[in-house]
Amino acid sequence: MQKIIEGKAYVLGDNVDTDQIIPAEHLVYSLSDPEESKKYGRYALSGVPEEKAGLPTGHIPFISGENDRSDFQIIIGGSNFGCGSSREHAPYALQKAGVQVVVAESYARIFYRNAVDGGFIVPLETEVVLKEKIKSGDPLSIDLDSLTLKNQNTGQSYSLLPPGDVLPIIEAGGIFEYARKSGMI
Amino acid sequence: MPMTITEKILAKAARKKSVTPGENIWLNVDTLMTHDVCGPPTIQIWKDEFGEKARIWDKNKLVIFPDHYIYTSDKHAIRNVDILRKFASDYNLPNYYDVGTARYKGVCHIALAEEGFNRPGTVLIGTDSHTCTAGAFGLFATGVGNTDAAFVLGTGKIWEKVPESMQFIFDGNMPDYLTAKDLILHVLGEITTDGATYRAMEFSGQAIQSLNVDERMTLTNMAVEAGGMNGIIAADAVIEDYLKGKTQQPYEILQSDPDARYHSKYRFDVEKLEPVVAKPHSPDNRDTVRKVQGTPLTRAYIGSCTGGKLTDFIHAAKILKGRRVVIPTFVVPASTSIARKLKSETYEGQRLIDILTDSGCVLAPSSCAACLGGPADTIGRSIDNDVVISTTNRNFPGRMGSKNAGIFLASPLTVAASALKGAITDPREFLQ
Questions:
Q1: Which of B383, B396, B403 is the best residue to mutate to test the A interface, defined by the most A CB atoms within 10 Å of its own CB?
Q2: What is the pLDDT of residue B432?
Q3: Above 0.95 for ipTM, yes or no?
Q4: pLDDT tens, B220-236?
Q5: What is the bridge-based pairing of β-strands A157-159 and A148-151?
Q6: What is the pLDDT of residues B145-158, one digit of tens each?
C-alpha cells in the first residue's frame, strides 16, 4: 500500500448518503466492463445538492463536464459519511473518479465495510472537524504511517485515528487478498 | 455470561459459548439474499476472485429476488435481470424468483418473510441495507456490499464485529392513530441517523408484542436509518403462527437474558406519542404532524418494504374509504402476494383494491419502484420540485428521483389523510 497520498481536497458536509455519492438510477452499469464502468466515475457525487458540493463555497463540480476522473483525490467528509444503502457502487464510484482516501469524522457501517473489504478507497477517521479547516481545492498530503494529514496551503497538520482491527484488510487491499494471505481461501 | 439476543445468535453462528461486544468473529451464514442491483456484481466478483475454484457454498441457502428495477425499459436494468436468470439456470438454483413468471415475488425483504426464509435464531446476510427488516423474526439480519456477499457465496462465512445492543421498550396500548412507522420515526428523532452506528437495536415491550408481523417489520426495517447493524425483536407466538406451513427448516427462539448488558436503554409510552413525519432531507428530521399540518404536497406514495405491506394498505383504506384523493397518489404493493390480497381482503365489506382505486389512487405492480427513484421511466418517480409524502424509508436529497424534490416520511394513515387534503394532515381528523 502506498504510504504517502497527495491530492486536492474536496470538502463535503455531514450525512453524505450513498444516494448522493452515486444516485440509484446509475446502479445499472457494469462494474467489470472497462469502458462502461467509467460511468461510475462520471456520476460520482452527482447527487450532492449544489450548495453543498465542494465546501465551504459549494457549487464546485466534483467532475467537470463529461470527464470520468475528478481533479480531487481526497474527500473530506463530516460525520456519518456513506449512510444509507448498501450499494458497493458508492466507494467504487469514488475510486473510479480517482479518489484514494476519504477522511471523515465517522462512517456508516456498510459504506466503511465496503470501502475496506472491496479495497476501493482507504476510509480514515479523525476527531478534528476538518471541514471547518480545509477548503475544497487545498493541496493535501496524507502520511499513512504517521497518520497525519497536512494542508500544504496553510502548513497545518492534523492527526488521524488508527484504523484498528481492519488494518490488515486495508493493507492486504481487500477481504479476498486478506483471506488468501491468511490461508482462509 | 448474560447475553442479549443478538449476542446469543452471533455466538451460535460463530460456534462459541459466548461473545462480547467489540470482538471480531467469523459467522457461519444461514441465508444469503441478493437482488438485481447487487446480484450481478456479486456474481462477477465471486467468479473473478475464486476463479476455477468458484463454487456456491450451499445452493439451498442462496435466495435471489429480482425486485428493484423491474418495470422499466432501461436496457442495463434488463441486462441485470438477464444475468441473474442465466446464473440461476447455470447453477440450477432452487430459490430464484424470476420476473415474468408466477414465481415473481416483488420486494426482497417482504418476500423473504413470505417464503419462510426468516427463521428465528439464524444469520441472514443480504446485499441490501434494509436486510435488517428480517430481524422482526428474532434473527440476526444485516446488509452488506457485493464483495462481502461474494465472499459469503463462496465460503458461507462473514466477519462481523459483535455490536453493542441498544434497548427500546415501548409500553402501553397502541392508539388507533399510531402505527409502527410513527414509533420508528420517533426513535430516529431521538437518536438521529448515526445514533445506532455499529449497534444492535432491540425492540420490546407490551406495545411491540401487540404488533403483527407486518408492523414489526416496519420497525426493524428502519434500524439502518439510525446506522444500526441490525434491528431485532425476540420471536413469540405471533411469529410461530406466521411461520406455520412456511418452513420445514429448524429454528430456535432466543431471548435476551434479564441481566444482559446494553449500551443504552430507551423507554416510551406509546399512548403519549402522536403521529409524526420525517421532514426533508433526513429520516431523523422528526416533527409532529400537528406542527407541519397544512404543508402543501404535490404527490403521495404508499409502497416499499417499509410501507407497502398488507397492514399498510388496511391502514390507508381506513382513511380513504368513500373519499377522494386530490393529489396523484401511488399505491405499490411490496409483493405479488400482497397485490393478490388487496383483491381478496376487505375492509368494512369492501375490497381493499376497490377502496384504493375508487379513492383515485394509481396502482402499480409490485417492485421497489420509486422508493429509490430508479430508472427515468419508474412509476411514481418524483419530478422537479415535487413535495412528496411517502410511507417509504428514506428522504435523502434525490432519493425518489428529483434532486430538487422534498420528501416527508410518514405512516400510511398520515399519508392517506394528507392525500385527501393535498397537504399534510393529521390522520386523527379522519378517524373520529
A1: B396
A2: 75
A3: yes
A4: 999 999 999 999 999 99
A5: antiparallel
A6: 999 999 999 999 99
Q: Are residues B293 and B168 in the same domain?
A: no
Instruction: Outline where DSSP puts E strands in chain A.
Output: 4-11, 74-76, 101-104, 122-125, 139-143, 148-151, 157-159
* B282 in Cβ contact with A17 (< 8 Å): no
Model pLDDT for residues A59-115, shown as the tens digit of each residue: 999 999 999 999 999 999 999 999 999 999 999 999 999 999 999 999 999 999 999
CATH class of A7-139: alpha beta
Kindly report, residue by residue over B114-149, the tens digit of the pLDDT: 999 999 999 999 999 999 999 999 999 999 999 999
- Domain map (residue ranges) of chain A: 7-139
Instruction: Name B369's Cβ contacts closer than 8 Å, sequence gap at least 6.
Output: B71, B303, B304, B330, B332, B378, B379, B380
Domain of residue B29 covers: 5-268
Shared domain check, B301 and B239: no
Q: Which residues of A touch B80 (CB under 8 A)?
A: 28
| Same domain as B289, residue B242 | no
Query: CB of B374 within 8 A of CB of A24?
Result: yes
Of B79, B131, B145, the CB nearest to A113: B145
- Cβ of A84 within 8 Å of Cβ of B394? The answer is yes
Nearest to B44 among A15, A31, A85 (CB): A31
- State the Cα angle at B132 between B131 and B138, rounded to 5°: 120
State the smallest CA–CA distance between residue A117 and chain B in angstroms.
Answer: 7
Which pLDDT score, from 0 to 100, does residue B63 have? 98
**Binary contact (B147, A88; C-beta < 8 A):** yes
- How far apart CA A61 and CA A45 sit, in angstroms, is 9
Examine the domain organization and report whether B226 and B340 are in the same domain. Answer: no
| Count of the separate structural domains present in chain B | 2
Look at residues B243, B268, B293 and tell me which one is the last residue of a structural domain: B268
Query: Considering CB atoms only, which of B24, B69, B194 is closest to A83?
Result: B194
Contacts of A179 in chain B (CB under 8 A): 151, 155
A174 contacts B44? CB cut-off 8 A: no
